[in-house]
Amino acid sequence: MASSGRPSVNKRNREQARRERNQEKAARRDQRATEQKGRPQGDGGEDPDIAGIVPGPQPPIGED
Question: Average pLDDT by consecutive 10-residue portion of the chain (64 residues)?
């Protein structure tokens, strides 16, 4: 039976690739966090999509 290579070298390569992926993910998380801090927050006012809507029964469409 043929061996699949030197296990210690393969394992080292896999672990190095995993560390690199984790570093890239951490960098992306940090970048998103800094971008989110720079965004203007909402004014806390009323949602423009539902502004002026009155709860309860609505008048019929044809009447003025």
Answer: 76 96 97 87 74 84 70
User: How far apart (Å, rounded) are the C-alpha atoms in residues 24 and 27?
Assistant: 5
Q: From the CB of residue 55, how many other CB atoms can be counted at a distance below 10 Å?
A: 5
Nearest 5°: the CA angle 46, 50, 52 is 80
List alpha helices for 1-64, DSSP H. 7-38
d(C-alpha 3, C-alpha 13), whole Å: 17
CA-atom Rg of the chain in angstroms? 29
pTM of the predicted protein model: 0.52
Diameter over CA atoms, the chain: 89
